[in-house]
Amino acid sequence: MASPNSTRSLVSSRSGGSGFGKPPFISKSAASMKRQMELGARQAELESKLKKEEARQAELDAAHEVEQDAAVARAKELGILPTPVTRARVSLRMYSHPQSVFRAHSFLVGNEQGGLSEQLGRVLIEADKTTLDALRQLIETVNDNNMIRRSPLYQEFLITVSNIPNPYKYGDKDLRHYRFAAFAQPGD
Question: What is the arithmetic mean of pLDDT over 161-182?
């Protein structure tokens, strides 16, 4: 008869070692499939965690964006942050005193009848920042190859001023002075 110790040694030699807990025969392909399944489960778990983390980060980013927008709005209300710069165009026209038709009339070539002229030109400005002094510089001068010159618009103004009648007998210096006026409607 076999002793209990001999039975135990027989089982342990077949199972490959400890005798308990492991199946007696596992093929290499089955072991490979088991590893792949474990890796797949681990990868699915990691992907799930990653998606949850991305969703949480997106929520935090959205909340941060809302906070930033609110802070910017409060700063603009308080005047701490400037409002965005708006570009505008200033149309330039010239007004001269109307002439009597007995002194000059439309049959004379190159004769100005007076009143408000057609548009002479346009100047681009920053509506919130450009002052009248800066507007005068934009009208009168242009930077050409690092040289400050008279702008063609201002030269046209000077030629027109020198050719129109001078009913108040202004001198040359006074004749070159000009004033700004604004119209309520752009078409006026």
Answer: 81
Within 13 Å, how many C-alpha atoms sit on residue 51's CB side?
A: 6
Contact 164, 114 (CB under 8 A): yes
With residues binned 3-state (H G I as helix, E B as strand, rest as coil), the percentages for the chain, rounded to 5, are 45, 15, 40
Q: Residue 115 pairs with which residues in a beta bridge?
A: 96
Which H or E run contains 157? helix 152-163
User: What phi and psi, each to the nearest 5 degrees, are found at residue 55?
Assistant: -65, -40
What's the average model confidence in pLDDT over 66-77? 84
CB neighbourhood size of 143 (10 A): 9
Ranges 122-131, 147-156, 159-168, most confident: 147-156
Q: Of the ranges 22-26, 27-31, 73-77, 157-161, which one carries the lowest mean pLDDT score?
A: 22-26
3-state secondary structure of 141: strand
The angle formed by the CA atoms of residues 116, 152 and 144, to the nearest 5 degrees, is: 150
Cα–Cα distances in Å, from 86 out to 47, 121, 132? 48, 20, 17
For residues 171 and 159, what is the distance between their CA atoms, to the nearest angstrom?
15
Beta bridge partners, 75, equal none
